[in-house]
Write a structure and sequence with these properties.
The structure is a single chain. By secondary structure, the protein is α+β, with helices and mostly antiparallel strands. Helices cover about 25% and strands about 25% of the residues. It has a 7-stranded mixed sheet, sandwiched between helices. Strands 7, 8, 9, 14, 15 and 16 form a 6-stranded mixed sheet that branches. A hairpin with a 6-residue loop joins strand 26 and strand 27. The radius of gyration is 26 Å and the shape is globular. The protein starts with a helix and ends with a helix. The chain binds dioxothiomolybdenum(VI) ion. The site of dioxothiomolybdenum(VI) ion has 11 residues, from loops. Dioxothiomolybdenum(VI) ion (MOS) binds next to loops. This is Xanthine dehydrogenase family protein molybdopterin-binding subunit. Pfam families: Ald_Xan_dh_C, MoCoBD_1, MoCoBD_2.
Length: about 725
């Protein structure tokens, strides 16, 4: 079940910009119209003449929030409207506040400026794009390229060799909830209502930007209408919004337009992936070389961690990764659901499929033959790796044994070419230090506050179910508080660590609560009676840490920083796993690709909440189909920025594009990873899905596509 379903469908769930406060004013942004250069003479006179306009500002005293991947708080280090430099098209140059959103928008449109343009670079191979070797540019140990043995030599001496280069286009997350919210000052306290995955970063980033004490900032984000990574840090509109609200002495609401979110939030950068495989004649893979060029901005180095998953996929004996960052004139790209894993799996799992054809072996059988129990890189055992079960169960549910191996050998009744493809995926399992508090009231209800954010993935449901099952009380008697800095630090919820971080903290809190209520053991609890016996409501605090993680990590999250453990732990390595089976139909005359059915089987440890877990997988698969067949952010070579920055022009999958998606789980708890046995699921659900579609398209048509998306014009 989804415990907040009723609130959501009745409109009671309040998202950031849903707040309507007394005396509220409305803001709008004006954006730079050049690809790079400097701005001068921002003319606000026409804007100020629009009836209802209260304020127009073009410059702010705001410190940089710092870059989130540099250990600070902003999606990028560059704070617009603090200087003349324009780093990318779509960078805000002014903010307008008015009595109505219409007046604010009209006034923002009326702002003009003088620009001094400079040449800009938008592609990996553009003139002026700067290529850096990541491990030299960012010398952090966890960003060093992964290397094992002499992979090049092993490949050169292998009987079967595959060498292919794949290009994954830039993509944008398009969550239903646009970026934005409401800010207000109450006395000296700044209150921010904004959909975010990281209330901590908003709070501590604003403290840094405004030079005020974080204790004077509250961030309230009980519901987020989709995050996908774009809401993982402090965005550039919030600091200016706080200052205009302060100047006016009124609450101010700002919601970015979709086009503005395409330029003032992170996106999945373009990447080029070269895969070399060396195998024997049976298809046993001996070595892999994985080389990646990934786009970043001029002002920040967004990391690449593609090797982390590709090096763990199969039991090879040698691996060499090489990751480079290419600086271009865009806002800083960032995490977007399975940020590295989905693009790199599209590459490596197509190469593995190609290998299966080269050696004449069934693609499922070949993958099973390359399975391993130990992590090839560290030599440590995987705490759980049930990818074999995922493949066998998926093949059975899909009816894979009916597949005829030859490309172009299967047809549907309407004459469409039918393709069946398979691919697997993995995603690192991490835990972030988390704080929890549990309170039992005289009414028998239990209130749980824990670090985390509800962005639709169902974390509130997993927490409520854990508590309800443990105590034997109705789910409706559990109140869950997340995403609000009044109740806890609220570390970043991303990287598929949300549930695996929150549940162990709550689990530990439940044990404390049982002690206090004098109901030790595991039986059902009459909470109201236990509280009545004690004579007053009780509250406990607890925390959760990753295996081997120092308790110092708790203090780090209290000051707004990230404290992540995994996927390599003392004595073992943990990943989540998935296998996708996809059927495509390629219509004979139009070459349109349809996806009538998918079967996906995941190993995410214990399934904490079956309904929301299955929903996560369906969402990931749908996004994988979109990545394979539709999505691409087109850049504007004339003026900079992204061209198709609306939902009309950026085609995401809709219901009519999606057939049946059968989801199943191995559902084996991983108690080495944490005492609840859960691993991450949100992102692994997408990993490999695009590759499975591409492999199915190859099976249907006999052609491999090394560039996404695969559209009609590429198939014809
Ligand atoms: Mo996610 S891309 O780790 O929010």
């Amino acid at each position: 079940m989804r415990v907040d379903a009723y609130e959501k469908v009745t409109g009671k769930a309040l998202y950031g910009a849903d707040r309507v406060l007394p005396n509220m004013a409305y803001a709008a942004l004006a954006l730079a119209k050049i690809g790079r250069g400097t701005v001068s003479d921002v003319d606000t006179s026409a804007a100020l003449a629009v009836p209802g306009v209260l304020l127009v500002e073009t410059r702010f005293e705001l410190a940089s929030p710092g870059f989130i991947m540099g250990g600070q708080f902003g999606f990028q280090s560059l704070q617009p409207m603090t200087g003349d430099h324009i780093a990318y098209r779509g960078q805000p140059i002014a903010i307008v506040v008015a009595e109505t959103p219409v007046a604010a928008t009209e006034a923002a449109e009326a702002i003009t400026a003088t620009y001094q343009e400079e040449p800009f670079a938008l592609h990996l191979d553009s003139e002026g794009a700067t290529t850096l070797v990541q491990e030299e540019a960012i010398p952090l140990p966890f960003l060093a390229d992964i290397k094992l043995g002499d992979a090049d030599a092993v490949i050169d001496s292998s009987a079967v060799q595959i060498d292919a280069t794949y290009v994954h286009p830039p993509q944008h997350a398009v969550p239903m909830e646009l970026n934005g919210g409401v800010v207000e000052w109450q006395g000296g306290t700044l209150i921010v209502h904004e959909g975010t995955q990281n209330a901590n970063a908003v709070r501590f980033g604003l403290a840094q930007q405004l030079g005020i004490d974080a204790a004077k900032i509250e961030v309230r984000s009980p519901y987020v209408g989709g995050g996908f990574g774009q809401k993982n840090s402090l965005l550039v509109h919030i600091g200016p919004l706080a200052l205009v609200s302060q100047r006016l002495g009124r609450p101010v609401k700002l919601v970015l337009t979709r086009t503005q979110t395409f330029h003032n939030g992170s996106f999945r950068p373009v990447s080029k992936q070269r895969i070399r495989l060396g195998a024997d004649e049976s298809g046993k893979i001996n070595a892999v070389v994985h080389e990646v060029d990934q786009q970043t901005s001029r002002h920040d180095l967004f990391i690449a961690m593609h090797n982390e998953t590709s090096s763990r996929l199969y039991g090879y004996s040698a691996f060499r990764g090489r990751q480079r960052l290419v600086q271009t004139d865009v806002q800083t790209p960032g995490y977007m659901r399975a940020p590295f894993e989905s693009p790199s799996m599209f590459a490596i799992e197509q190469a593995v499929d190609e290998l299966a054809y080269r050696v004449g072996r069934d693609p499922v059988e070949l993958r099973l033959a390359n399975d391993t129990e130990n992590d090839p890189i560290t030599g440590l055992p995987f705490s759980s790796r049930h990818i074999g079960d995922c493949l066998r169960r998926g093949a059975e549910l899909f009816g894979w044994s009916e597949r005829s191996p030859e490309p172009r050998s299967m047809r549907a009744e309407d004459g469409s070419l039918v393709g069946w493809g398979v691919a697997i995926g993995n995603y690192p399992a991490s835990i972030v230090a988390a704080h929890a508090s549990l309170a039992a009231g005289e009414d028998g209800k239990v209130t749980v506050a824990v670090d985390g954010h509800e962005m639709g993935q169902g974390i509130r449901s997993t927490i409520a179910l854990l508590v309800a099952r443990d105590l034997g009380i109705p789910v409706g008697d559990v109140i869950v508080r997340v995403g609000d800095t009044r109740y806890g630090p609220q570390h970043l919820t991303a990287g598929s660590w949300g549930t695996a971080s929150a549940l162990p903290a709550v689990h530990s809190g439940l044990q404390e609560l049982r002690k206090l209520l004098n109901v030790a053991g595991t039986g059902d609890v009459d909470v109201a009676a236990a509280v009545a016996d004690i004579g007053h409501a009780v509250e406990v605090s607890a925390h959760g840490l990753g295996p081997g993680q120092s308790a110092d990590a708790l203090g780090q999250t209290e000051t707004g920083h990230m404290a992540i453990a995994g996927p390599v732990f003392p004595g073992f390595v943990t990943f989540s796993w998935i296998a996708h089976f996809v059927e495509v139909h390629v219509e004979p005359t139009t070459c349109r690709v349809r996806v009538p059915r998918v079967v996906s089987v995941a190993d995410c440890g214990r399934v904490a909440s079956p309904v929301t877990a299955a929903s996560q997988v369906r969402g990931g698969v749908i996004w994988g189909i979109g990545a394979a067949l539709r999505e691409e952010s087109l850049v504007d070579d004339r003026f900079g920025g992204f061209l198709n920055s609306t939902l009309e022009e950026y085609p995401v999958m809709v219901n009519a594009d999606v057939g049946s998606i059968d989801v199943d789980f191995v559902d084996k708890p991983d108690y080495q990873f944490n005492p609840v046995g859960v691993k991450g699921l949100g992102e692994v659900s997408m990993v490999g899905a695009a590759a499975a579609v591409a492999n199915a398209v190859h099976h249907a048509t006999g052609r491999r596509h090394h560039r996404l998306p695969i559209r009609i014009e590429h198939i014809i």
